[in-house]
Amino acid sequence: NEVELGKQFAQSELTRNLQEPFDYLGIIRRGEHVTVLYRVRSKQKEGEWLGRLVLGYEKGEIRIFGASIF
After folding, report:
1. Residue ranges, the chain, pLDDT below 70
2. 3-state DSSP: the chain helix, strand, coil percent, rounded to 5?
């Protein structure tokens, strides 16, 4: 659910304080879906995290199927 995903990211201290630029790492393709991987950093927490965004087609439109930071 895109609304729930938005709420989770809005409530996360890490995701509210991401520092640009993000470092693009690559794309993995699976049928009609792609997973975009990138390295992110926080303005408040030390270290690096792996970002993941899953995009794909549904009923002829591009949709976000998942987003996470590890």
Report:
1. 1-10
2. 20, 60, 20
Place of tokens 């879906």: 33
Neighbours of 51 (CB within 10 A): 20
Contact 16, 10 (CB under 8 A): yes
pTM of the model: 0.73
> Among candidates 43, 55, 39, which has minimal Cα distance to 17?
43
Residue 56 to residue 67: CA distance in whole angstroms: 12
CA distance 24 to 39: 7
